[in-house]
Amino acid sequence: MSFDHSGAGPRPLGRDSTAPTFFDVVAPRTRVIGTGGYLPEQVVTNTELEARLPTTAEWIKTRTGIEQRHIAAPDEATSDMAAVAARRAIEASGLTVADLDLIILATSTPDSPLPASAAHLQHKLGADLIPAFDLNASAAGFLYGLTIGDQFISAGTYKTVLVVGADLMSRVTQEDDRTAAALFGDGAGAVVLVPALDDGRGILSSKIQADGMLASLMQLPGGGSAEPLTEERLAEGRQYLRLDGKKLYEISIRHLTSYSMQALKAARLTSAELDWVVPQQGNLTIVTTISERLGFPLEKFVLTLADTGNTQAASIPIALDEAVRDGRIQAGHNVLMCALGAGISWGTMMIRM
């Protein structure tokens, strides 16, 4: 979905526009001018999972907030989903594929180890001979991609950057793993970035971090240079996702709350000046706790996880696109985004749409 780019100023900050603001206004360098999303047609409900796994539909909903997830068709690859979302974002921006200067694809489920799925995406879009690369920061990948895109635009290297988050999690989860099968879904989301105008709208702050000491909490151990796949490892299911849900839960709450506050502070805003939070769509309990600790009402969180499950790098851009298209997020709104995934890697960002 696109926004009005006429240069009209943002809505006044805070509840009282006449009251003095404690912090100076941050001048953004990069803005979003178009969003797009894509979810595969096939839907798998909790009831369907209950029929084949040692769990119940109500248990999944109560523990996670998820009611269904979308699953890619057998002939669909990550780059296919990314291409649909990208086309929608480009169309919403009012630009064309020919206007793109750079493509960044955030994914942890590429089409293949080589080449980068971004190269396939570039080809499927019919883009010019421009740079295109993959970025793997798990669920935080989209925020990493936005941060990198912002740097390229701020430096004057590129003017128009396409950032896509796409993951096909159903291909890396075991069908009999009741935790992973219930949590994850497939999908893609995208945005188009361009230089900011002098209207206060754009990326206000970004915080990205990683802690490799906790890499074992979420991993896909087999298939890389450290553990090439063999018949024995395939039989052991080393090609599938493994995660320590309890520890990830605790760390997600701690880091996403702390770094969300840091992103707010860096943007020189307070939680009272927030309009929306678009979190990683991973677990409703995590989101609820973050809401309580930030002192920001849950009804102002954009939530799609009941319908989509956790789509990893696609999670935030899918939710962002939905809220823009249905009119909840409007031009001038202050939006906080936050996500944490494997690595562990996490990120937070403040943006004025």
Would you state the CATH class? Answer: Alpha Beta
Structural category: alpha/beta
Q: What's the CATH topology label? A: Peroxisomal Thiolase, Chain A, domain 1
In what order do the strands lie side by side in the largest sheet? 1-7-6-4-5
**Radius of gyration from the alpha-carbon trace, in angstroms:** 19 Å
Name the shape in a single word.
Answer: globular
Please outline the major beta sheet.
Answer: 5 strands, mixed
> Helix tally?
11
Mean pLDDT: 92
CATH superfamily: Thiolase/Chalcone synthase
Task: Describe, in plain words, how this protein is organized in 3D.
The chain is of the alpha/beta class. The protein has one domain (1-353): 3-Layer(aba) Sandwich (Peroxisomal Thiolase, Chain A, domain 1). It has helices at residues 46-52, 57-64, 78-93, 117-125, 141-154, 178-183, 231-235, 245-266, 284-294, 305-308, 315-325, and strands at 30-38, 42-45, 68-71, 102-106, 132-135, 161-168, 186-195, 202-210, 218-219, 242-243, 276-279, 334-341, 345-352. Strand 4, helix 4 (117-125) and strand 5 (132-135) form a beta-alpha-beta unit. The longest helix is centred in the last third of the chain and has 22 residues, at 245-266. Mean pLDDT is 92; it is low at 5-25.
